[in-house]
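for the writeup, i need someone to sanity check this before i put it in the appendix. the sequnce is what the collaborator sent (i think, or maybe the updated version? ugh). structure was predicted straight from it, no edits. if anything looks off just tell me and ill rerun, i have time this weekend
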Amino acid sequence: MVKACTYPLWRELAMSEDLPKEALKTVIGALCAPAATPHGFDAQADRWREEALKTAMPALLARTSAKRLRSQLLGARRREDAGCPGS
């Protein structure tokens, strides 16, 4: 779980050319994780996550060769396209 207010930061990290390869797993995990809110699921927070992931997706896919990480990214994208909350 990730605090919703940090999604813009995760997006910027994902798109940074200076991001070390070792950090990709953490950044992808954060952008694919549902938002942590004090009241459970928050549709607005999940929209922030979806937007951050959507924006960062091309950069992440271009830098990620590991099958497991690519599957995690593509699986999160498919769930969003299908309209599943908290993907």
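The chain has a mean pLDDT of 85. The longest strand covers residues 2-3.
thx in advance!!
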